[in-house]
Design brief:
With 724 residues, this protein is of the alpha/beta class. 40% of the residues lie in helices and 10% in strands. The structure holds 4-O-methyl-beta-D-glucopyranuronic acid.
Length: 724
Amino acid sequence: MQLHLKYRFLILVLMILCFADKAHAENGYDLWLRYTKIENPGNYKTYRELHKNIIFEATSPRLKAAKAELKKGLLGMLDLQPEENGKISKQTLIIGTNQSSKWIAQLSFVNEINQLDDEGFIIRSAKIGGNPVTVLAAKNDIGILYGVFHYLKLMQTNQPLEHLDIKEEPKLQYRVLNHWDNLDGTIERGYAGFTLWDWERLPMYKDQRLTDYARANASVGINGAVLNNVNANAKSLRTEWLVKASGLADAFRPYGIRVYLTARFSAPKEIGGLPTADPADPRVRQWWKDKVKEIYSIIPDFGGFLVKANSEGQPGPQDYGRTHADGANMMAEALEPYGGVVFWRAFVYQNERHIDRVMNGYQEFKPLDGQFARNVFVQPKNGPIDFQPREPFHPLFGAMPKTALAMEVQITQENLGHSMHLVYLGSLFEETLQSDTYENGKGSTVSKVLQNYKKSHGISGIADVPNIGTDMNWTGHLFGQANWHAFGRLAWNPDLTAKELSEEWIRMTFSNKEEIIRPVQKIMLMSQEAAVNYMMPLGLNHIMNYDTHNGPEPWHDDPTWKASDYHKVSKDGIGIDRSSQGTNAVSQYHSPLREEFNSLKTCPENLLLWFHRVSWDYKMRSGKTLWDEMVSHYYQGVQSVEEMEKIWASLDGKIDQERFEHTRTLLKMQENEARWWRDACILFFGKYSGKPIPKSFEKPKHSLEYYQKIPFPYDWDSTLYFKK
Ligand code: GCW
């Protein structure tokens, strides 16, 4: 039977559509910048009306990037290519700076625009010659780029575009990613593939992916990238590598991102031919000056150095009897004439078992307050140990008024299930940023401490170790994207909440439909507590596997490192006494926090075992004994993951199949691993407490010996264990 021509045509169209649909499957590559067609028909119509005409003269590379983004967004969301006739008519969108646009220069609020912060912008509904228009203006081109992303976001998140009066300025100036990328392409603690820096083909070849990386960063306000690992290789400072790095700087420049490098302290010896790297030696100082001069001749807007010194075997000034300040100031002196800065890490600890590691950073840096040059940031991690699922804030925050501190957080989930676990870190970041240091009385939050350095030192900043790599979706776990997004947005404004940021991300990543937003948000907001519960509840920490930092290993015991130093479990109890009776780590915090942490009665229970050694029969606030409470937290953790899976399952058919299945499978893995954590920890600690798992809870499937045999690193062999 011959099909009618009309039907044959129809089938062909259907086939093309099917194919096109597959080709545009949602693999996560577009991050939160998907610019899919506006779902709400009412909004679609009104948004279109407002963009019939735009006036946006783009001459500089930054303005060109902003304009390209605007066009991409309007085309994707509204199927619209606006007119550009250069004339003001009803509903014109006018974009520019005082220099780039004659219209902006004539505005009644041009003074306000000129007084904006360097990176700030205004988006305002106004009238010109009786015509209602929208103005997007900034002092500098970079503000326009940030403004365009903000403007597009209004549409992506379904907000009205009439009666706008938005003024945004970043609250922290240095918003920097600290890539731990090695020169051989691998990434230390990276779980999303290999480095994006294609060293072999740089500087000539600049993959589109570099632009997309820069777009994503600029869209959330990130303005710096340290290209290489803090466990540094001096080679990265050799001329040929600098030339390669300049290719990255060129690719990122239109998006306002400056590149930084880590500086290996011993570089003058390793690549400079000097017999020493002593910061007091004039030859060494000169070497750094010459090196910095060379860097700026190759990368004129180079940001500066990030340094890990005298920590975990890295060389540093203490090798020569000098202080951290001596080392940092030497580099700062070289960078100062060019406007560069030094980020000097405060993550230092000695591997000596008699020293309470949580006190180390404070003890080494607090006495140096006031000795660092003005262009030095000292950079502690968010907590005093090392990116644990939960830590109190680092006591250096609030203790270094004379030294600009930048906080380092970690997005790569080194201790939070790598890229297998869904853990929304917006909550973790908020928890730290909103912790009160009491530096100047109540309300001196970590966030305020960081922001205040702008006034006192002219610089303020925050850094993060990302999990960005060659994986198609950039971050391994799709929800890892939310952590990248949250970091950037919090760097711009550290007082935003995890709740509002999760909603913003969901709207842009999935949909504006309530039936999708609410369930996904619920999952995200419960996820940090879930992970804390199944891994390290009640202030437990550092009981993960020694090498991989994934999976439980509270029994690790070798001559150099013992997990028991971190939990001190015995038949009498568990936890470390850091009160005034113990190591007195509480004294590193201001009153009244010090007293609050010091007393068993007032110490927050979620940090109890961090600060105290507690007997198994201790009555918790719930009325349960410590043992029963700990066990219920571990069970609660697994239950929460099961609940997250259930909620996710309810979205079947509402979210594209590819991203749905990806998340579903990973949640299942997370559940398996949560049980692994729970059962291994409870069986191990139970050996000491001698107490049973309450009857109401399901029994662990295997014996402690079984869990202790699961081979690390978590590899094929261990996968077999889970399959058994
Ligand atoms: O916890 C450790 C990590 C190291 C890392 C170090 C640091 C880059 O296991 O991989 O090294 O922290 O932050 O310097």
